[in-house]
């Protein structure tokens, strides 16, 4: 006689029931994510390292956006605001970063729906699954996320049913070196992109030899400000280093649906033509070192050794995502762009040329880790073409997915203002 034991299948209970969705960052995209989730009746908690909403935006608050108000206000956020009597600014006006925070982000953060769910002064240092490192698989999808939080007083953990990382990239600029390798610490002799040249940072630049490194819109904004400063203090000298033989995203007189963006290229090139800015094309920087009271920059121009000395460098080379906090999360990133693998071909500057970024949402943002998402600028990795409209549609789609509305999550509708700045050599198109 044989005996057969029948063991019922083990059912993994979903321990995430009732937990909130954790959003990292209270910037424009993070608050939009919270607004969409709240509209769908889902509990939310927002962790913000700064003391206010939009703290990262404040760093470049003096800079005027090239997107008008109608492109920088999220639809769900607008509904929350208007329910409390908010009046939208002129749709065609171009806000500064400070005006974006004062007129939109801070009022949004003070709404009844959001005020109680944002935890300021709270930095997320790590994300994992509760009781699981990245190697464990059994029951993983039903296990809560755990976020390691640091405040000025203590370090604690919090649990969540899903995580949306909208922490951005502005805290991790790319290297000045063309190789991407790290260089010596230059202290206050280097600034990140978009310093307040004619305001709070004026003393760092007036009467100094300044080198701006980078070929994008941040570089153009800084060059325009430096040229104006040089009019006030003629001892100020400005050089502009770019790796390529030209500036694809800053073509002169570009046809652009965003007129202010199109004008940046023409303005920067006129400064070069007028001799107010010295442009150093085909300059591949190999090393930067502090010497005496300045910085010695060495490398190659058109393959030949080249060096110059300056007082201060503006690093406008772009940003890259800081992935340190995600070591225990199964994140699927493209090897080149460091964006989600399905999204990367749509935004890779080596491939993406004329036209707009195609509509994309949760299908392109999904990772091997269930219910974990990168959104906003961080989702673009090292690609330079992010616009707030893109991030708002991303989080609308993600919120629908988390709420179980898979149809709405995949009905993605994104129409971006197009640009005439394209090139087949660098494959660059700022959509």
Helical segment count: 12
Q: Any idea what the shape is?
A: globular
Radius of gyration: 23 Å
- Strand order of the main beta sheet, please? 3-2-1-7-16
- Which structural class do the helices and strands define? alpha/beta
Given as residue ranges, the uncertain stretches (5+ residues, pLDDT < 50) are 7-11, 419-431
In angstroms, what separates the terminal alpha carbons? 74 Å
Helix content: 10-25%
Percent in strands = 15-25%
Question: What's the average pLDDT?
Answer: 90
How many strands in all?
Answer: 16
- Largest sheet descriptor: 5 strands, parallel
Order of helices and strands: EHEHHHHEEEEEEHEHEHEEEEEHHEHH
For this entry, give a set of tags.
five-stranded parallel sheet, globular, 16 strands, 431 residues, disordered C terminus, 19% strand, alpha/beta, single chain
Explained architecture:
With 431 residues, the protein is α/β, with parallel strands linked by helices. 24% of the residues lie in helices and 19% in strands. The chain has helices spanning 28-39, 55-58, 75-82, 97-109, 112-115, 202-205, 217-232, 259-273, 344-347, 362-365, 388-402, 406-410, and strands spanning 21-24, 44-47, 118-119, 123-129, 145-150, 155-160, 162-165, 190-192, 209-213, 237-241, 278-280, 283-291, 294-301, 304-310, 312-315, 372-374. A five-stranded parallel β-sheet has the order 3-2-1-7-16, covered by helices on one side. The longest helix is centred in the middle third of the chain and has 16 residues, at 217-232. The radius of gyration is 23 Å and the shape is globular. 42% of the residues are buried. Residues 7-11 and 419-431 have low confidence and may be disordered.
């Amino acid at each position: 006689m044989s005996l057969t034991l029948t063991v019922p299948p083990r059912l993994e209970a979903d321990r995430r029931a009732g937990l909130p969705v954790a959003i990292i960052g209270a910037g424009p995209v993070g608050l939009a994510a919270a607004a969409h989730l709240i509209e769908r009746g889902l509990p939310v908690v927002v962790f913000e390292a700064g003391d206010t909403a939009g703290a990262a935006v404040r760093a470049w608050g003096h800079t005027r956006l090239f997107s008008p108000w109608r492109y920088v206000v999220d639809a769900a956020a607008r509904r929350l605001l208007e329910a409390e009597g908010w009046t939208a600014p002129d749709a065609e006006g171009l806000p500064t970063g400070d005006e974006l925070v004062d007129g939109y982000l801070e009022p949004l953060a003070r709404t009844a729906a959001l005020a109680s769910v944002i935890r300021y002064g709270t930095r997320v240092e790590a994300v994992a699954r509760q009781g699981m490192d990245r190697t464990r698989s059994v029951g993983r999808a039903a296990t809560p996320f755990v976020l390691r939080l640091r405040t000025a007083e203590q370090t604690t953990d919090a649990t969540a049913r899903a995580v949306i990382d909208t922490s951005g990239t502005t805290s991790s600029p790319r290297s000045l070196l063309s190789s991407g390798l790290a260089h010596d610490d230059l202290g206050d002799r280097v600034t990140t992109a978009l310093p307040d040249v004619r305001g709070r940072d004026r003393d760092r630049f007036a009467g100094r030899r300044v080198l701006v490194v980078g070929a994008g819109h941040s570089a153009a904004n800084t060059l325009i400000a430096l040229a104006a400063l040089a009019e006030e203090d003629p001892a100020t000298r400005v050089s502009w280093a770019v790796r390529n033989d030209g500036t694809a995203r800053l073509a002169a007189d570009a046809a652009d649906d965003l007129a202010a963006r199109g004008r940046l290229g023409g303005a920067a090139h006129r400064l070069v033509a007028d001799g107010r800015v010295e442009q150093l094309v085909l300059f591949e920087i190999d090393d930067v070192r502090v010497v005496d009271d300045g910085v010695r920059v060495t490398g190659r121009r058109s393959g030949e050794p080249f060096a110059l000395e300056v007082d201060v460098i503006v690093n406008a080379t772009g940003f890259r995502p800081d992935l340190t906090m995600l070591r225990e999360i199964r994140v699927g990133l493209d090897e080149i762009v460091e964006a989600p693998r399905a999204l990367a071909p749509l935004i890779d500057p080596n491939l993406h040329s004329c036209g707009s970024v195609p509509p994309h949402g949760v299908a392109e943002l999904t990772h091997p880790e269930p219910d974990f998402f990168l959104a906003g600028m961080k989702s673009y990795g090292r690609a330079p073409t992010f616009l707030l409209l893109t991030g708002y549609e991303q989080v609308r789609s993600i919120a629908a997915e988390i709420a179980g509305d898979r149809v709405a999550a995949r009905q993605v509708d994104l129409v971006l203002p197009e640009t005439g700045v394209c090139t087949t050599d660098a494959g660059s198109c700022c959509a």
